[in-house]
Specification:
Layout lengths: L11 H5 L11 H27 L4 E9 L10 E4 L4 E4 L5 E7 L2 E8 L6 E7 L3 E8 L12 E2 L10 E5 L1 H6 L4 H4 L6 E5 L5 E5 L7 E5 L2 E2 L20 E5 L4 H4 L6 E6 L3 E2 L3 E11 L5 E10 L6 E12 L14 E13 L3 E15 L9 H10 L16 E18 L2 E17 L12 E18 L3 E16 L11 E17 L2 E20 L2 E21 L4 E12 L3 H5 L1 E4 L4 E4 L7 E13 L3 E27 L2 E25 L4 E14 L4 E2 L7 E9 L9 E10 L17 E14 L2 E10 L23 E9 L1
Parallel strand pairs: 1-7, 12-15, 31-34
Antiparallel strand pairs: 1-4, 2-3, 2-5, 5-6, 8-16, 9-14, 10-11, 12-13, 14-15, 17-18, 17-41, 18-19, 19-20, 20-21, 21-22, 22-23, 23-24, 24-25, 25-26, 26-27, 27-28, 28-29, 29-32, 30-31, 32-33, 33-34, 34-35, 35-36, 35-37, 37-38, 38-39, 39-40, 40-41
Organism: Algoriphagus aestuariicola
Subcellular location: Cell outer membrane
InterPro entries: Beta-barrel_TonB, Beta-barrel_TonB_sf, CarboxyPept-like_regulatory, Plug_dom, Plug_dom_sf, TonB-dep_rcpt-like
Length: 801
């Protein structure tokens, strides 16, 4: 009989030992989470139903405000109903909602500076009416008016969450994976404390697509310790789409999509400079980022942006010891320029990412007994000191991305789009070797990727919109000679062509959308093994489709549902890996007979929103045939470079299901609270067992209090939060060590905003793992060798002018 989460927590267990029974079969986490979420949802359902009964005028007008020329979302547009003298302001994604309207006919005006006013008659008869308003830019010289462009609004009926504003400000200095842990249902799969990649509903790596300013990020993302090659500082908004989005984006989006969007370019004379300076006590991290955004005063429609960052950190410290060789360095830059007119828009974009990351020395053991001993010991034997030095084993990664995008309005209802992207990724992994070989990488890969997107958007009246498109991807991967090691994966050429069509219908309280896609892929691989040439020529093809909808149940409740098929061909590493993966400190064995994964995912969402409360519940089920996973064999591989665990790629039918819950409540104008939680189950239905590396149940909750003056309450805020993570009881039949116990972490944050004339100065102070709790995260591949990071105090300074 297992012990509960709280039995493993100190001093947390001591505080609650008189209130909770520590020995019980069911995790206390699940009980608490179930009771809290049931009470919260029950209360909100009751409150919503009572309000709906009490109100005789309970209709809703909701919708989206977009730019006519490019479908970009318009933030801060004013929507006004003349007859009732009520209105709303559109949010970051262009959405607005006006509640408590009586049945009847209304005159709606939409206003946004520098654009022609829209005045339209709307008839409200059902419980909700949805409208999309597209605003046309005024052909007047408005001086310093800023008109945004070059970022298309995300229009989907599946679950979607965005990070922007204060949440983005608080996440500065974190990797992309760590930043996204603020989203319910998103966790990380990490290798140590400096390498992490996002996980959505249990999916990661080649099942999650990341878009850097609209271009699919193509590196060596198949590796468990290959973090996304992207600088979060280039973004002012990060969006997570949790559904199967293969119709929109292609096979690698079967688990979800992450959109990393930089600020939209201005089209009139304007300028903004943003400087971030950060420091952290754990690892002695220092981080500097600067960006400049400008618009031309001479050429109307011309805008540009430049950005760069540099980051340096030393050895990470667990509560009781330093982790040897866990420092990192990083420097990045990006730039873009664009021109937009009434009919034509064009944008050029470039980003460069470069990092060097140390790998925990104790993960590379010298012999079998050392490997067994360190796993049993649970912590490094090396008595390390703090250092910024990065030695072997380590990674060096550089990534170039260039993009050229344009659109042309054939007429007010049809828009033609073209986008080309080029990427060059170079990954080097260094092992501990003797003599001259120690300066040479053990893995040296170059990946060239060309992508072409050609699509046609249409908007017919107010009800119909859609897109028809063509995607082409061409890749060439090469092993750079001179490593002295048989390559882990072969050289290969990949070609993928896809065509798709999507259509959306909007009427009253209902939104419906559907899509269909066909993909064809070829992979030609070759390498020498023991002087023998091995070649493979593979073909994959498949259809995918989806249908989804949104229905406004009442002024406060909305229901969304999206069901879609998806597929993913096996990646080259899953097919052909045959050797030591140095960065992961493991031997990986592929299977060239693998077939494509195919899935059907159903995502349902229920949203409640009132003046004080916002709650979103997402439930999903995902059945996958021929699911590919990396499984520990229990065997070890001994070489001159050390002793390593052996993993193999296997296939089995899988069933993933779970739910995410997020909500916030404003008790007063100053005091508020939030709750985020997720539960996921993943069964190997072939063997009636569980898969490795599936996130355990977790809940994040916190309270905030604003200290600012009335009228500017958000200028001074303190937040106390608690993260509860249960032990993973659903383990595979074999693992190198039992899953670690659950844990609780307390964090505290303070944000101060100071207005200096027209400029803004922000000061942030955060303490993560306040009580310096020692814990191990199940989703960390190095949990066998070391604990996670201890207390970390961060100071964040931001100046905007």
């Amino acid at each position: 009989m297992g012990t509960s989460l709280f039995c493993h927590l100190s001093p947390f267990a001591t505080l609650f030992q008189n209130f909770w029974e520590c020995q019980r079969e069911q995790s206390i986490f699940a009980t608490v989470f179930h009771k809290v979420s049931s009470f919260l949802l029950g209360f909100l359902f009751f409150a919503g139903s009572q309000l709906a009964i009490a109100q005789t005028c309970d209709l809703v007008l909701r919708g989206k405000i977009l730019h006519l020329e490019n479908d970009d979302a318009i933030e801060a547009a004013y929507v006004w109903i003349l007859e009732t003298r009520t209105g709303a302001v559109s949010d970051q994604n262009g959405n607005f909602v006006i509640r408590e309207l009586c049945p009847g006919t209304y005159t709606v005006t939409v206003q946004y500076l520098g654009h022609k006013e829209i005045r339209q008659t709307v008839n409200l008869s059902g419980n909700s009416t949805a409208q999309t308003f597209r605003m046309e830019e005024e052909s007047l010289d408005l001086g310093s008016v800023e008109v945004h462009g070059h970022r298309e609004a995300v229009q989907t009926t599946t679950a979607i969450t965005s990070l922007y504003g204060d949440e983005m400000l608080q996440s500065r200095g974190e990797s992309l994976g760590e930043s996204l842990k603020r989203v319910a249902g998103v966790t990380t799969f990490s290798t140590g404390n400096t390498i992490s990649k996002p996980v959505i509903h249990g999916m990661h790596s080649n099942r999650i697509m990341i878009l850097n300013n609209g271009i699919r990020l193509e590196g060596q993302q198949w590796g468990a310790e290959h973090a996304p090659e992207i600088d979060p500082f280039l973004a002012d908004e990060i969006t997570v789409i949790k559904g199967a989005e293969t119709v929109r984006f292609g096979p690698e989006a079967m688990g979800g999509v992450i959109l990393v969007n930089p600020p939209a370019l201005p089209t009139n004379k304007a300028s903004q400079t943003d400087i971030h300076l950060l420091g952290a006590t754990n690892g002695g991290m220092g981080n500097l980022s600067a960006s400049y955004l400008g618009g031309s005063g001479k050429i109307k429609g011309l805008g540009y942006r430049v950005q760069g960052s540099i980051k340096r950190a030393g050895n990470v410290k667990s509560p009781d010891y330093y982790q040897a060789n866990t420092g990192m360095s990083e420097y990045n830059l990006s730039g873009s320029a664009g021109y937009s007119s009434e009919k034509l828009g064009i944008e050029a974009y470039y980003s460069y990412f470069n990092t060097e990351i140390g790998i925990l020395k104790d993960a590379h053991t010298g012999n079998l007994s050392d490997l067994i001993d360190i796993i049993e010991n649970g912590r490094p034997f090396t008595d390390a000191e703090f250092s910024y030095a990065i030695e072997n084993p380590k990674q060096k990664v550089s990534h170039h991305l260039a993009k050229l995008k344009s659109h042309y309005h054939l007429n007010p209802n049809w828009k033609l789009n073209f986008q080309y992207g080029f990427q060059l990724n170079n990954r080097q992994e260094f092992d501990k070797r003797r003599g001259e070989l120690n300066t040479k990488p053990s893995l040296d890969l170059e990946l060239f990727t060309n992508t072409v997107d050609f699509f046609l958007d249409h908007n017919l009246k107010q009800n119909w919109s859609g897109s028809f498109g063509l995607n082409i991807i061409q890749q060439a991967n090469s092993n750079v000679p001179g490593t002295g090691v048989t390559p882990l994966i072969p050289n290969y050429d990949l070609f993928n062509g896809g065509i798709y069509a999507m259509e959306k219908y909007l009427k009253g309280p209902l939104e419906l959308e559907a899509g269909l896609r066909y993909d064809f892929r070829t992979v030609d691989a070759a390498r020498y093994v023991d002087e023998e040439l091995q070649q493979s020529n593979l073909e994959y093809k498949n259809f995918s489709a989806f249908v989804g909808g949104l229905y406004q149940l009442s002024p406060y409740f909305a229901f969304t549902s999206n069901i879609g098929t998806a597929w993913r061909p096996p990646n080259v590493n899953e097919l052909f890996s045959q050797g030591l993966h140095h960065g992961a400190a493991a031997v990986e064995i592929g299977d060239p007979t693998m077939v494509s994964e195919k899935s059907i995912k159903w995502v349902n969402g229920l949203e409640y929103e009132s003046d004080r409360a916002v709650v979103e519940l997402t439930a999903y089920a995902n059945r996958i045939s021929n699911y590919i996973y990396l499984n520990p064999t229990g065997e070890t591989y001994v070489s001159l470079r050390g002793t390593f665990n052996v993993y193999e790629y296997l296939q089995a039918d899988a069933f993933f299901y779970g739910f995410d819950l997020s909500g916030s409540y404003n008790f007063t104008d100053r005091a508020s609270a939030y709750l985020k939680g997720s539960i996921i189950r993943a069964k190997n239905t072939d063997e009636d067992s569980y898969f490795p590396f599936i996130p355990s149940d977790r809940m994040d909750w916190g309270v905030s209090y604003s200290l600012g003056k009335k009228g500017n309450l958000d200028s001074d805020k303190i937040t106390i939060s608690n993260v509860l993570v249960a032990s993973q009881k659903r383990e595979p039949d074999f693992d190198l060590a039992p899953a670690p116990p659950g844990y609780a972490l307390f964090n505290i944050g303070y944000l101060k905003k100071i207005q200096l004339a027209k400029n803004q100065f922000n000061i942030g102070l955060q303490v993560n793992n306040l009580f310096n709790t020692e814990y191990k995260e199940y989703m960390n591949r190095f949990r066998y060798f070391t604990a996670d990071m201890g207390r970390n105090i961060l100071l964040k300074l931001n100046y905007q002018f």
